[in-house]
Amino acid sequence: MADCIFCEIIAGRAPASIVYQDDTCLAFMDIHPLGRGHVLIVPLEHAVQLPELPDAQRTHLFRVAHHILDAQRALGWGKRGSHILLNDGPQANQMVPHIHVHIIPREKRDALPTLSRLFLHITGLMGRATARTSLDEQASALRQQLPEIIH
Ligand code: 5GP
Ligand code: ZN
Questions:
Q1: 5 by DSSP, 3-state: which?
Q2: pLDDT for 106-147, tens place per residue?
Q3: Looking at the CA of 104, which ligand is closest?
Q4: Which residues surround ligand 2, an ion (CB under 5 A)?
Q5: Which ligand is nearest to the CA of 44?
Q6: Residue 1 near ligand 1, beta carbon < 6 Å
Q7: Residue 46 catalytic?
Q8: Is 150 inside any structural domain?
Q9: Does residue 120 lie within any of the structural domains?
Q10: pTM of the full structure
Q11: N or C: which end of the chain has fewer CB within 10 A?
Q12: What's the total number of domains in the chain?
């Protein structure tokens, strides 16, 4: 869909650090992460809110999200806890109108930096994007874990 940044990423016209792709969804690193290793999983088909997606695709999206969580944990990210989050609609602070599941690892004593990034996120200010090299390194580390996890 025109003007959708996630459709641009899916089409390969906008850069992204890709973690996983299959015939219905794509996972990539969030450019303004709320925690180290923050991943987004999106359906390939443009849809704004969950009820627009067929049931099988919704289920698959969360199945992949669970695999990404396992890969993060295998790397030691979010060992003490993670957010699995979907902002379904503008009233729920959805900024990008293309369905996406956030998997956000949390670390010990990260409350302050996470809260300040969350403030920037909710206000739409977002702050500085994380360097592509760092996102690529994280995506590569996650990709190496996934063959062990997804069968
Ligand atoms: P929402 O508030 O819609 O649930 O979250 C949208 C997320 O998309 C934010 O965490 C934001 O950092 C991320 N995001 C926005 N634009 C881009 C982009 O161009 N590339 C990537 N990788 N993430 C993006
Ligand atoms: Zn889209």
A1: helix
A2: 999 888 888 888 888 888 777 788 899 999 999 999 999 998
A3: 1
A4: 1, 4, 6-7, 46, 98
A5: 2
A6: no
A7: no
A8: no
A9: yes
A10: 0.95
A11: C
A12: 1
- Identify the pLDDT of residue 47: 97
Q: Evaluate whether residue 68 is within a structural domain.
A: yes
> Is 113 within 8 Å of 72 (Cβ atoms)?
no
Residues with Cβ within 8 Å of 150's Cβ and at least 6 positions away in sequence, in order, are 20, 67
* Distance in Å, CA 43 to ligand 1 centroid: 14
Query: Which residues, at least 6 apart from 103, have a Cβ–Cβ distance to it below 8 Å?
Result: 38, 39, 40, 41, 65, 68, 69, 72, 82, 83, 84
Domain that holds residue 87: 5-145
CB distance 104 to ligand 1 below 6 Å: no
Ligand 1 pocket, 20 CB below 6 A?
A: no
Give the sheet arrangement for strand 101-105, strand by strand: 18-21, 25-29, 39-43, 101-105, 82-85
